[in-house]
Amino acid sequence: MKIIDKYIIKKFLGTFFYAISLLILIVIVFDISENLDSFIKNKAPLSAILFDNYLNFIPYFINLFIYLFTFISVIFFTSKLAGDTEIIAILSSGVSFRRLLFPYLLASLFLAIFSFYLGNFLIPKTNEVRRVFKNAYMEDLNKDNDKDLHIQVEPGKYAYVESFSSSFQLGQKFTLEQYENQQLVYKLMASRILWDTAEKKWTLRNYVIRRIDSTGRQTIEQGDELDTTIRSLVNTDLYKIKERYEEMDFYQLNDYIERERLKGSIAFKKYEIEKHKRIAGPAAIIILTFIGVALSSRKVRGGIGMHLGIGIALTFSYIFLMQVSTVFSAFGELHPAVGAWIPNIIYFFIGLYLLQKAPK
């Protein structure tokens, strides 16, 4: 690395972290004013508000706006370089425009890796604490399903529960049926089913088990109480958790998607969209960085204001396109991977075009 590389990387990252730090403080002030009534009403401790909620909110906020502030940072300091004729001096000294892009690539690659780590590993951990606080002092994130819940636990195995309370982890009138070649081979019935959160297993009350062999012969087992694990069925399958994927890291998200596919459920689609967004997002940082360089490396009469205006418009159009494509993926026939990567593909070609038109 040369002095010019260190200079550009320092300007790039310095501008990014300075800008986003200022906005974090502003957003936290507004968020406190908006939720102050809930904090007072629910008697939230000050330490919990500061550390459990807002300290764990910072990584989430950084990753939420990292594309926007990367783009703004690139345009801001690169426009200043162009306005001070520094880029002309760099190119005139024999440094090619392609070589000039090298420190931008390094800095954007660092931010992309940083974003991937935040979104897939750190934020799910901080969200666990933040969501516990949110559930206790702001809003109830768990919602019980309507009565008469039917789910496919895995191919050929079906569960039914008349009702399930997430507060007490208790279900009423539970049935589990298993079929082979469209023939019933196993049926478990219980008047109550209780989830043991410590042992991660079910306790059945007043249960009856019917087993049917290939000849049609039946055996019946019954009792007052039975502790058992039911493969592919856990307590969270029986009630809704708002934006549950927020607590899942990269590997947990993959495991959940595979488990839902095994059940034949279509609920995994929203989680698959989230998975691809967590991969496509960091890639967008690199693409938007080069678009920002191509836009702001030319000295224009409007100066930084003109570049910032165009840059912000492009960034918001990217975010809007991302939202539209993910909606089509969630509720239409568009594949989640395609929906997450369409904005990147479009803006990749926009970036190539702008780089070709940039001053050399």
Care to describe what's here?
By secondary structure, the chain is an alpha+beta fold. The protein contains 9 helices and 8 strands. The strands form 2 sheets. It has a 6-stranded antiparallel beta sheet. Strands 1-8 form a two-stranded antiparallel ribbon. A hairpin with a 2-residue loop joins strand 2 (about 150-155) and strand 3 (about 155-165). The two termini are about 20 Å apart.
Features:
360 residues, alpha+beta, lipopolysaccharide transport protein A fold, six-stranded antiparallel sheet, 9 helices, 8 strands, 61% helix, 19% strand, elongated
Give me the side-by-side strand order of the main sheet.
2-3-4-5-6-7
Summed up, the helix count is: 9
Provide the β-strand percentage band: 15-25%
- Radius of gyration (Å): 27 Å
Task: Label the structural class.
Answer: alpha+beta
Which series of helices and strands comes N to C?
Answer: HHHHHEEEEEEEEHHHH
Largest β sheet strand count, sense and barrel closure: 6 strands, antiparallel
The beta-strand count equals: 8
Helix content: 55-70%
Please mark out the parts with pLDDT under 50 across 5 or more consecutive residues, or reply none.
Answer: none
Which outline best applies? Answer: elongated
Q: Please report the distance between the alpha carbons of the first and last residues.
A: 21 Å
Mean pLDDT, all residues: 88
Count the domains.
2
